[in-house]
Amino acid sequence: MKVKAAPGLRVPTEDRANAYIEQTPVDVPMSLYYRRLVADGDLIRLPDELSPEGKKGGGKND
Questions:
Q1: Which residues are registered as beta bridge partners of 53?
Q2: CB neighbour list of residue 23: distance below 8 Å, 6 or more residues apart
Q3: Distance (Å, rounded) from C-alpha 42 to C-alpha 21?
């Protein structure tokens, strides 16, 4: 999933406490750690980018 830190925050990554997620969007695994940070509002989940032909599978019209 793609996330960025909430405004004014620096959030430590799961595997390296001295590396931070800031305002630049990054891809992270859907682990409990990151899902909890999203639920708490420390990280903002961003929509996944679609390829030019669109995503396949999982949609209502598939």
A1: none
A2: 4, 5, 7
A3: 10
Counting beta carbons within 10 angstroms of the beta carbon of residue 37, is it exposed (0 to 12), middle (13 to 18) or buried (19 or more)? buried
pLDDT of residue 14: 96
Among residues 29, 26, 31, 59, the alpha carbon closest in space to that of 44 is found at 26
Rounded to the nearest angstrom, the gap between the alpha carbon of residue 7 and the centroid of all alpha carbons in its chain is: 14
* Residue 24 CB neighbour total at 10 angstroms: 7
Measure the CA–CA gap between 25 and 11, rounded to whole angstroms.
12
Per-residue pLDDT of the chain (62 residues), as tens digits, is 999 999 999 999 999 989 999 999 999 999 999 999 999 999 999 997 754 555 555 555 54
For 51-58, the CB contacts below 8 A with 24+ separation are none
